[in-house]
Design goal:
The chain has a single domain (1-344), classed as 2-enoyl-CoA Hydratase, Chain A, domain 1 (Alpha-Beta Complex). The chain has helices at residues 28-42, 66-74, 79-95, 112-115, 146-150, 157-164, 170-176, 188-195, 200-207, 215-218, 220-227, 232-239, 244-253, 258-273, 277-292, 295-306, 324-330, and strands spanning 4-9, 12-17, 49-54, 59-61, 101-105, 108-110, 122-125, 130-132, 168-169, 181-182. The strands form 2 sheets. Strands 1-2-3-5-7-10 form a 6-stranded mixed sheet, with helices on both faces. Strands 4-6-8-9 form a 4-stranded mixed sheet. By secondary structure, the chain is an alpha/beta fold. It is globular, with a radius of gyration of 20 Å. The protein has 17 helices and 10 strands. The chain is 47% helix and 12% strand.
């Protein structure tokens, strides 16, 4: 069976990620296949909308194939950079797709899973949804347009999500603008039936239910106060003085790569000012390119995914040791290696 399957039924072009044992993690071949299929369906009269979901009951997609990226980074290869370039182009294509793009964000939706869903026009979450951008925990930085999405959440909620790598619920995702509709999992078959005879807007208006209240929204006061600070060091200082929940966030942040934290905060602030998703993806590719060549990235994956000792040896080890020139290098033009062909 293919790692990604395509089917057209009742005018719906159905994309199903089909690596359930790997939590539907994306490979380069999967990205290429989805890109080609979306291009084919773009002008196909038989397809009036596209729907993407994941096989199995654990989640839509856990992100990219981290082990293969780790092996590539250790070997000094470039396959991962080529993968990211095509993945980011796919993210932009989804954001600008001329037909309704319906993403079923059920279960775990992480990293690259966010990229193939949260840029869609109709984003559906369930009671099982858990969305996260865990990159800072492995010496990386949120990508796939993640800094675009997180920089445009209400207040500083996106900064909190990025720096802590917190997983959020479907209700939180709707509040943050990462999703649009809430539907219990046992009603997903009803949605599929409704889509067979109705346009997505009508089907969702009939089937979707009011989302539960967002727990993250209830924390917005201290989040706004703490994360408006200009540096990670100041953010941590404010968190430690702002109650138990804030202090717990500080403890979580302090386990992350100081370099990744600093670069991520700057990337979020910059993304908020950039004009569109394409510009943000270009910035993210520069950052990803530099991070891929760094020892931080390999060490982060080793500690979290390979050896699982959860004891990364970051270098620099503290925020105080972060050099401005190092951070600047992540944002520098890549010259001949710049990301090209990113259009919506």
């Amino acid at each position: 069976m293919s790692d990604v399957e395509f089917l057209v039924h009742s005018g719906i072009g159905h994309i199903r990620l089909n690596r359930p044992r790997a939590l539907n993690a994306l490979t380069h071949d999967m990205v290429s296949a989805i890109t080609a299929q979306l291009a084919q369906w773009r002008d196909a009269p038989a397809v009036r909308a596209v729907l993407v979901d994941g096989a199995g009951d654990r989640g839509l997609c856990a992100g990219g194939d981290i082990r293969s990226i780790y092996d590539d980074a250790r070997a000094g290869g470039s396959a991962s950079l080529e993968f990211w370039a095509d993945e980011y182009r796919l993210n932009a294509s989804i954001a600008g797709y001329p037909k309704p793009y319906i993403a079923i964000m059920d279960g775990l939706v992480m990293g690259g899973g966010v990229g193939i869903s949260a840029h869609g026009s109709h984003r559906i979450v369930t009671e099982r949804t858990r969305i996260g951008m865990p990159e800072v925990g492995i010496g990386f930085v949120p990508d796939v347009g993640g800094t675009y999405l997180l920089s445009r959440t209400p207040g500083e909620l996106g900064t909190h999500i990025a720096l802590t790598t917190a997983q959020i619920t479907g209700a939180d995702a709707i509040h943050c603008g990462l999703a649009d509709h809430y539907l219990p999992t046992d009603r997903l078959p009803d949605l599929f039936d409704a889509l067979a005879s109705s346009v997505p807007q009508t089907a969702l208006a009939t089937i979707a239910e009011p989302a539960p209240s967002s727990a993250l929204a209830d924390e917005s006061t201290w989040i706004e106060h703490c994360y408006t600070a200009d540096t990670v060091t100041e953010i941590l200082a404010r968190l430690k003085q702002s109650g138990d929940h804030a202090a717990a966030a500080a403890t979580e942040i302090e386990t992350k790569s100081p370099t990744s934290l600093t670069v991520t905060l700057r990337a979020l602030r910059s993304a908020a000012k950039l004009p569109d998703l394409e510009a943000v993806l270009t910035q993210e590719y520069r950052i990803s390119h530099r991070a891929f060549r760094s020892a931080e990235f390999v060490e982060g994956i080793r500690a979290q995914i390979i050896d699982k000792d959860r004891a990364p040896r970051w270098s620099p080890a503290t925020l105080a040791e972060i050099d401005k020139d190092l951070v600047d290098s992540y944002f520098a033009d890549l010259g001949a290696n710049e990301l090209t062909g990113v259009t919506r």
